[in-house]
Amino acid sequence: MQTPDPATTDRAPDTRATDPQAVRKVSFVSLGCPKALVDSERIVTRLRAEGYELTRTHAGADLVLVNTCGFLDSAKAESLAAIGDALAQNGKVVVTGCMGAEPEAITEKFPNVLAITGPQQYESVMEAVHRAVPPAHAPFIDLVPPQGVKLTPRHYAYLKISEGCNNRCSFCIIPKLRGDLVSRPAADVLREAEKLVAAGVKELLVISQDTSAYGVDLKYATSVWRDREVRAKFLDLSAALGELGVWVRLHYVYPYPHVDEVVPLMAEGRVLPYLDIPFQHGATSVLQRMRRPGAQEKTLQRIARWREICPDITLRSTFIVGFPGETEQEFDELLDWLDEASLDRVGCFKYEPVRGAPANDLGDAVPDEVKAERWHRFMQRQQAISARRLKRKVGSRQQVIIDEVGGTIAKGRSKADAPEIDGAVYVASRRPLRIGEIATVKIERADAYDLHGTAVGF
Ligand code: SF4
Fold it and tell me: Reduced to 3 DSSP states, what percent helix, strand and coil does the chain have, rounded to the nearest 5?
């Protein structure tokens, strides 16, 4: 894509730069996963704290800030396109996020970007913004609510508990981009969670690269919250979050054995009976090449045990098909494993080489048409399983958090549905429902992904 030279783009003369009282406007582009979204929220909070105003359009902004994703080649292409658009429409562009870890990939194409910083480098981002557009003289600090500025709707919020990852899955470059695991002290996380709840958040979505490894780097050190010591440990943090009286949903849980300990908390209703646990494959030989825990027979036994302890548990997972060297037999093993595991929600990716990932050295690439054909077979098989599991809910009563209202039907999610990635519950109601409200809904119908029902109890 040819990018117009910013020096020749047609822009109005910038009078704000010379007026110390004028409001500085920043147009913000947030790309990538929920973890990147949390970074965006932190940066936006800082911008607002310093008096910058956010605008929806690049034209007329004093600066465009692009938070990039660099995980897959397709995500990198999307990030580069966003940078190109920002340069074309505005000309003053600062880049941050995962792609910032390989700045040459950006500068090669766009030598005119003003600055490039890596993920979580909040200070460097703000320095770059200050250099490009100095803050207005009187920062509107009181404009910032104490819980920060959130890009998610007010009734749910992502809560990031750690950064980086100690695992070395062969298809992934996250540890290279984000480094080894660095956990936040438990009290720090809990205080942020309390502020969010005080501001009206009804659902906390716990995220990190590897949620179950939380606190390993801190040697599970304790910190003081509500006059008591809380260990920086997956189980202890989950239990403490469960005291806040809101929905707590656990994402990106790596299948370590100690994950089993958290299932009783789900059975007791202290955290949501929901585990987002990427298994990635069902064949032990493929998992070994992926450098992930491989005893899938044992994993099936563990899943069965989780369901005994907490029959309502929802299991969401992701898988990769067409990993280098994947044979037809290994793929069949995956399908068999899927039948046995009978997971509720599943995402599937066709393997895509990521520059710098060790899996590229494995050779033996699976041809694209084979990947596509396996992906379709996988999806067909899983769709039938998911639909069957969803159907079992018809006739039950479910708690549903309302995300959207309008007309006669509101849209919400049950405890089994995370925002953005899972299905929805469509709710008919005699009285108007409010966004963020948790309604009891009698489920009347299920389709492939979603449930339909009527609000009851009033
Ligand atoms: S656990 Fe996740 S983030 Fe860590 S190396 Fe594996 S895929 Fe990457």
Answer: 40, 20, 40
Topology at the third CATH level for domain 396-455:
OB fold (Dihydrolipoamide Acetyltransferase, E2P) (2.40.50)
Cα–Cα distance measured from residue 65 to residue 399, given in angstroms and rounded to the nearest whole number? 39
Annotated ligand binding at 172? The verdict is yes
List, chain by chain if needed, residues with CB within 6 Å of any ligand 1 atom.
165, 167-169, 172, 174-175, 209-210, 254
Query: 1.10.3720.10, 3.40.50.300, 3.30.750.24, 3.40.50.12160: which CATH number matches 25-132?
Result: 3.40.50.12160
Burial of 314 (0-12, 13-18, 19+ CB in 10 A): buried
Tens of pLDDT, residues 75-132: 888 899 999 999 999 999 999 988 888 888 898 899 999 999 887 777 788 888 888 8
Residue ranges covered by each domain of the chain: 25-132, 156-392, 396-455
| pTM metric for this prediction | 0.77
Determine the Cα–Cα distance for residues 183 and 232; give it in Å rounded to an integer.
8
The continuous run of DSSP H or E covering 107 comes out as helix 103-107
User: 451, 390 in Cβ contact below 8 A?
Assistant: yes
DSSP tag of 375: H
Q: What is the CATH number of domain 156-392?
A: 3.80.30.20
pLDDT score at 17: 39
Number of residues in the chain: 458
Which mutation among 172, 292, 349 tests ligand 1's pocket best, with the greatest number of atoms within 8 A of CB?
172
Query: CA of 209: how far to CAs of 168, 186, 286, 429, in Å?
Result: 12, 17, 21, 39
3-class secondary structure, 243: helix
Ligand 1 atom nearest 209 alpha carbon? 3
Q: Whose CA is nearest to atom 2 of ligand 1?
A: 209
For residue 132, how far is the Cα from the chain centroid?
Answer: 30
